[in-house]
Amino acid sequence: MRSETSEKMRAQKNDAYFEEIIEKNKYKLYRICSIYAVNPIEPEDLFQDVIFQIWKSLEHFKGTSTIDTFVYKIALNVCMRSKMKFEKTNDKTDRFQSIHFTPIENEIDASEQEKFRFLKECISTLNETDTSLIVLYLDDLSYKKIAEITGFSENHIAVKMKRIRKKLFECIAPKIK
Predict the structure, then answer these.
(1) What is the pLDDT of residues 46-73, one digit of tens each?
(2) How far is CA 90 from CA 11, 85, 93, 120, 160, in A?
(3) Which SUPFAM superfamilies match (predicted)?
């Protein structure tokens, strides 16, 4: 009886901790998913997959990094895996481009949506490593935090980011005119 009660309390504590982590990081996670997936529905599916993988992996979190770093790593891995899987079956898959979904709470003016679309198009031309770096950078993470998540050195991140920003500027500048 006593072990059953303590097990329930531990499960409730874990559920509360999981919910707290997701609530804290949900917007960041969704942004990452929206970079790796095609709108309108795919980011939501990918987001659910990321949340599920975080839930499954949470018991393996050892605390050697921050929980945010742990969550970012999972999100990037799930998104990159999903993108690779899609690219393998791309010629066999039809996308539903005609379905348009705009969450009411996140309405953005048309010019901002267009700029985001241009940025997303340019990001999609980058390789996997550069894409993951720019996604983390756009979430306002420091080079130190990006290095911790990716395993690269801070100096390497700085050099890569300078090159990535240049590529993105060259890509997006003609589109924004």
Answers:
(1) 999 999 999 999 888 888 889 999 999 9
(2) 40, 8, 5, 19, 29
(3) Sigma2 domain of RNA polymerase sigma factors (SSF88946), Sigma3 and sigma4 domains of RNA polymerase sigma factors (SSF88659)
Q: Enumerate domains of the chain plus CATH numbers.
A: 1-104 (1.10.1740.10), 108-177 (1.10.10)
* pTM score: 0.64
Report residues of the chain scoring pLDDT below 70.
1-13, 38-41, 87-108, 177
- Between CA 49 and CA 29 the distance in angstroms is 11
In three-state secondary structure terms, 174 is helix
Segments of the chain assigned E as strands? none
